[in-house]
Amino acid sequence: MVTVALDADFFHRWMSAVSAAVDREAQRLTELDSAIGDADHGSNLRRGFAAAVASLDEERPDTPGAVLALAGRRLISTVGGASGPLYGTLLRRAGKALGDAGTVDAARLREALRTGVDAVAQLGSAAPGDKTMLDALYPAVEALGESGEDFEAARGAAEEGASATVPMLARRGRASYLGERSIGHQDPGATSSALLFAALADTAGAVASGDDGEAA
Ligand code: ADP
Ligand code: MG
Question: Is the pTM for the entire model greater than 0.90?
Fold first, then answer.
């Protein structure tokens, strides 16, 4: 369990971990998007998170809120596809919800993520069950639990949420143009949302084990 306060460095490392995961899984994300979209989800997110991390490395924002807000802005400005504005909104709104606190606890992070996910739903006029990233994001935020520290449960819930999109009929985004033919394929955005929460669990796990690159 992480009982320490989460600082700007934690959020910076989380975003770097997302970028590395997206890089590793880019081909898979694009393959999923080629089945029910336009085969650009992997390259979209790779470009967006690489730009976000480059800006974080350069500007080194000193609060958790500022880290997420900057990453969100960069996603919006560098990704042409739907996922850029959607993930960008998630991070920007979560960042705004964290305010200018120098450190935040996990419960506050959970609340901020909930605010961000609600903003994604509003921007995309989507709801759980529409076969979008929301089908991984909502269960993951719920699974963080009362303390907000159930990072491993959130990782699992996001993965299950992504798998659960396979039999769904897409009602939003490009996949919805396929109607019934969208059934039987996993949603690319829900799959990348699982990477976001896996990276969060990895980053939190590194803190808990003292392997976070900081002097003990
Ligand atoms: P594009 O669809 O513009 O090519 P991407 O391929 O990068 O963008 O992202 C596609 C993903 O974005 C989908 O798999 C889905 O999870 C998500 N998405 C698309 N439209 C919406 C929406 N209206 N609400 C929520 N998520 C959406
Ligand atoms: Mg696409």
Answer: yes
